[in-house]
């Protein structure tokens, strides 16, 4: 994954984002951390805890429509144990979002009581939205702020480029200042993010990636592969990623002259169908036990 490190995440960029987040933290009451429910661990920024230490936080497990519901339940229990407020949402349809404002108010109840005691009854709750690329931050803001993405007028002290959106009912959202990086130094994390499409296909070997994804699915989520690609038990037992990819290509009739499998096309199909949720609901970061 060293190529990925160099292309997308360079030290100057991280320092800038860190600085931007720290400069804006004083302007918000809380942080909403958006993560991808399919990769609840790999889609978290490794430095966020330190960066936003002390700020009340709500974690949103987005794209829960595509994640394995059993694993999602386990992840929710994990966050509860950690005493972190967490919510499952689907920002594509808006499912679960009506629980966001009440949960945020619950997390901030002491502060809200203090404001009330001081007569600050019209003070809106200001929340910074953070998350690595592709987890659904824009979708969340669009859903919460409505199609118009009603912008709140510039506030004093806000660095240029910071964007505020009104979500109604006394809730104001600040879009992530800067681009938050994933845990790019761990190749397993990079691979899972590449499976989900969070890391662009131009910078990874898609045949290798699709083959490895197929091996993972064959082991942990075989039903989707059987249904979509008509793979047999014997096919599913293959442990060479390339062989499994060829088998998928064969089952789909993706052949080129001479009867060889068009593995490039097979790989693109596997990745597209996985990312569209057609291979079933899958969680790539299990709560317990190493995968
Ligand atoms: P970002 O700002 O954090 O980078 O993420 P963004 O909202 O752009 O979302 C990234 C992709 O994830 C988008 O798909 C978006 O539609 C999709 N998405 C966001 N939330 C959900 C969800 O809860 N469920 C599902 N299934 N998908 C979700 P895209 O293909 O890049 O764009 P589009 O074709 O949907 O417009």
Keywords:
binds guanosine-5',3'-tetraphosphate; alpha/beta; 6-stranded mixed sheet; disordered N terminus; 6 strands; 291 residues
Structural account:
The protein is built from 13 helices and six strands. It has helices at residues 2-8, 11-25, 48-51, 69-81, 100-107, 109-117, 137-145, 187-196, 206-220, 222-229, 233-236, 241-251, 263-275, and strands at residues 30-36, 57-62, 85-88, 125-130, 164-166, 171-174. Strands 3-2-1-4-6-5 form a six-stranded mixed sheet, sandwiched between helices. α9 (206-220) packs across α12 and α12 (241-251) crosses α13. It is elongated, with a radius of gyration of 21 Å. The two termini are 19 Å apart. Mean pLDDT is 90; it is low at 1-7. Bound molecules: guanosine-5',3'-tetraphosphate. Guanosine-5',3'-tetraphosphate is lined by residues 62-63, 65-66, 90-92, 131, 133-139.
């Amino acid at each position: 994954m060293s190529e990925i490190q160099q292309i997308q995440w360079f030290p100057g960029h991280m320092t800038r984002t860190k600085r931007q987040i720290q400069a804006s933290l004083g302007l918000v009451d809380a942080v909403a951390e958006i993560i991808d429910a399919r990769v609840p661990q790999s889609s978290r920024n490794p430095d966020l805890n330190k960066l936003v230490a002390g700020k009340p936080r709500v974690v949103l497990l987005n794209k829960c429509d595509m994640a394995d519901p059993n694993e999602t339940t386990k992840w929710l229990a994990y966050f509860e144990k950690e005493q972190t407020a967490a919510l499952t949402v689907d920002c594509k349809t808006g499912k679960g979002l009506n629980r966001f404002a009440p949960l945020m108010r619950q997390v901030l109840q002491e502060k809200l009581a203090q404001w009330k005691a001081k007569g600050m009854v019209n003070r809106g709750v200001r929340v910074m939205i953070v998350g690595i690329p592709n987890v659904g931050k824009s979708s969340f803001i669009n859903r919460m702020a409505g199609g118009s993405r009603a912008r709140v007028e510039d506030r004093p002290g806000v660095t240029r480029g910071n964007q505020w959106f009104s979500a109604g009912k006394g809730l104001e959202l600040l879009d992530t200042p800067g681009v938050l990086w994933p845990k790019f130094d761990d190749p397993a994390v990079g691979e899972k993010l590449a499976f989900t499409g969070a890391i662009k296909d131009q910078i990874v070997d898609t045949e290798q990636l699709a083959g490895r994804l197929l091996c993972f699915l064959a082991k942990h989520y075989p039903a989707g592969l059987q249904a979509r690609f008509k793979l047999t038990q014997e096919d599913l037992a293959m442990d060479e990623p390339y062989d499994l990819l060829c088998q998928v290509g064969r089952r789909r009739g993706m052949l080129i002259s001479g009867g060889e499998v068009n593995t490039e096309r097979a790989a693109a199909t596997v990745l597209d169908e996985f990312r569209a949720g057609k291979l079933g609901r899958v969680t790539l970061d299990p709560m317990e036990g190493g995968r």
